[in-house]
Amino acid sequence: MRNRIRNRIIPEIETFNPGFTTTALRFAEYAAELDAHLETEVTEYLESEEEPETLEIARFATLSPFLKKDILSRLYVRKNSSGIGLSEGMVAEMLRFCSMKYGGKAKVFGKLELTRKKGKISYRKNREA
Q1: Which fold has domain 52-129?
Q2: Predicted local distance difference test score (pLDDT) of residue 104
Q3: What does pTM read for this prediction?
Q4: Quick one: which of 11, 112, 100 has its CA closest to 61?
Q5: What does the DSSP assignment read for 70-113?
Q6: pLDDT under 50: residue ranges of the chain
Q7: Distance between CA atoms of 72 and 95, rounded to whole angstroms?
Q8: How high is the pLDDT of residue 129?
Q9: What are phi and psi of 104, to 5 degrees?
Q10: Cα 97 to Cα 84: distance, rounded to the nearest angstrom
């Protein structure tokens, strides 16, 4: 599949958009830089929490929707050792769980277990999953 894209599809796109390859490479570099920046931001945010492996719900609620989703996605990847199984729907479900006032106190997403208690969400690796 990769060879077909590289040898057939990209040359075809280049016939009507000659700068496509250069633009795509620049975008890939930009995306890698953005990912590195976000990883640093998420790590700094998590390390700034008073308790390890805990999110203060009120503080978390003040973040932009994008940053909340990115934090939860990266927590999933860290605890599961990969992004396999992670979907937009799962991230939305994690976000809903973190925003709930009442209801379930714990939920498992792959090997990531989130627990809500006394204004905080703790996260840990669930060994049973």
Answers
A1: 3.30.465
A2: 73
A3: 0.86
A4: 100
A5: HHHHHHHHHHHTS-TT--HHHHHHHHHHHH-SSS-SEEEETTEE
A6: none
A7: 8
A8: 59
A9: -50, 145
A10: 20
